[in-house]
Specification:
Blueprint lengths: L6 H7 L1 H20 L15 H15 L1
Length: about 60
């Protein structure tokens, strides 16, 4: 893997990097959800890292193709 700015290109061409990034994101998502109280409103924002949101969006768009 090269510099962080090259990460989007690396994720596109290297399935091992994509799998590792997805696994890391899947591991962080439940932790972010556990920070929210159970009695919180459905509209309560969940703080997520931008890179995780970008990776989730990319995965969803690939599945729609």
């Amino acid at each position: 893997m090269s510099d962080p700015p090259d990460l989007p290109e690396d994720i596109e061409v290297n399935p091992a990097i994509r799998a590792a990034a997805t696994l890391r994101e899947i591991d962080r998502l439940p932790d972010a959800l556990l920070l929210i109280e159970e009695t919180a409103s459905v509209e309560t924002p969940v703080p997520l890292l931008l890179q995780d949101v970008a990776l989730l969006g990319r995965q969803l768009l690939q599945r729609l193709r």
